[in-house]
Amino acid sequence: MLTAIAFTAAVSLGGAALTYLFAKDEGLLWRLCVGNVIGSVLFFFPSFLLFKTGICLYGAAPWILLVSLLFVSLPLLLLRRKDIRAEFRHEKDLAKGKVQGATFTKLLRFSYYAFFGLLFLFFFARAMIVAADGIYTGGSQNLGDLPFHLGAIFSFSEGCNFPPQNPSFAGATFSYPFTADFLTAILVAVGAEVASVMWVQNVVWAFALLVILERFVFKVTGERLAGKLAAPILFFSGGLGFLWFFGDYWAGSQSLWYTLWNLGKDYTIGDEFRWGSSLVTLFITQRSLLLGMPLALIVAGFLWGKITTESTENTEKRKGRGMFATPLFPAFLVGLLAGTLPLVHAHSLFVLFVISGFWFFFSLERWREWTAFGIGTAIVAVPELYWVLSGSASRTGEFFAWHFGYQAGETNVVWFWLKNTGLFIPLLLAAFVLLLAGSRNGKKGADPEAEGSKRGGSQKGEGSIRDAFFALHNGRATDTIHVLAVFYLPFLLLFFVSNLFKLAPWEWDNIKVLIYWFAGSIPLVALVLSGFWKKGSAWKALVAVFFAALVFSGALDVWRTASGQIRNRVFDIRAVDLAEWMRFYTEPDAVILNAPTYNSAAVLSGRISVMRYPGHLSSHGIDYYGREDEVKKIYAGAPDADELLRKYNVEFILVSPAERGMMTVNEQYLSKFPVAHEEGEYRLYRAK
Q1: Which of 161, 207, 248, 271 has the most CB atoms around its CB within 10 Å?
Q2: To 10 degrees, what angle do helices 104-124 and 537-562 make?
Q3: Residue 435 predicted with pLDDT over 90
């Protein structure tokens, strides 16, 4: 764990220094969180390029780690510049002032971050549980995803999987965005425990997302309270499941306290609900999104600055920075960061493409900066996309097809979304109504600061949502309808596209795009709540009810995981022991034949499988049916079994309870192969 913590600190410092080249007037907490995200991504590239030579050939993992950390630390040299050093000192003084002296406001601020920090610590500790009798997960939706990520991690750290093959489908390029898992693998390769590394990384990336989302919402709305409301709305996302919870409670005979400690199911995902709490269904299961979403929001926040005056910098502030003085350089740099997304989280790149393409047409006067951003993105993204798609077994035609209503099925689509998101969409519609009404009633182009003074309020809009939204333009003569349309239409487009088409082979995976619609809608919902909060005590009570309804269902599911109520075994101890033997006594590039299941012992060995879980393969657009039939033929000892073993270059054949339970195993045929190792009911035959 100390290795992971030290690594996190190192990449955070280097990445934080880099933020001074594209972000002004930010706090140190924001810079450190952003720094960890972009520092992690920057670390990936040198370590990945040196991986084959340094680790696979010479076993020099510590040297690869050191060289890559030195690369990520290069931006610290920027602190030698007087202007950047002055900015850093100013921000350090501001940060010191926020923690010195006990006030109620400072206590609330600390409690806010402390709550989420502790929540993430407990929650992500349940992602992988190593016990004496095997490996478990405490996530209700993580039973298949945990072994998938472990298979990717160990394929790098133990199997020297380079150039990366799909660990679950031998011979195919690994087209899944594997940056997050590769970062874990590097630390595992130097001796760190995989469970500890994943825990530290998940906690830090989730906390970074919290801070980055808060700042993004504040930039859009001009309201600090709206920024604070954003994180719980995202992390505890859900719908009307709390009504089902109270129904279960009233139907039972146990106390409420007992019921909360013995929740038998999730209330945001299951038979009744398909949206899911983002922590339970996305961030604990899809590590690529956990790293990709904060990166996408960093880029989106920068791009939104191209629409507002917020990004217009005083030339004097950049004086003496040479090439950094031009506004083209920050745009180009942020473009380079966006270009890394194909290997971080590909759906996030698609979302940014939609958003940036839309916003570009509303700021054509800054076309040079947009061009610099586009060039930077293309320089990195195009080679990555070409490499990922070359040799991939994924069929691109599987990623786009007509599919109405997302997961509504036979359910009325309007009721489906109301049930799954609760008051979120009604509050979103309320935001539109109030903003548009304010635009009609107000004076077009009026200075919001002056308007607020006339009412005895401030430009933050005491009771005026319109003024709060106006504030982000700093008095610029632009009406609210224009601002609202420019900001929200690309997110609305993502929602409609995701309800008309499937954007992945498995239609539920549209949630990887829908979560961005949700994140883009949060500023408006949070703005409505913060505006009502300022109207008086009665309104505060109403806001409290609305907020509780928004987060209660998701909080129940998160609580169920964080409190340790779920414990599903993924691997038994025999599988763990056999995998350990395979790591030591088989070649790193050995190909294993095993049952098409998610929790084969081959996963923990780091070796490539002929085929693993069909659910993962189909969700990646891979046609596995022919290979699945051939796997069954081999185990059954079909006449062409030997030929099929040669076809897939199989070196070891695994027979375990999974193989015996899922298919016909011809023990007589397999007896002609020597037994390489045996662990209880697990037997490994040497096919070569």
Answers
A1: 161
A2: 30
A3: no
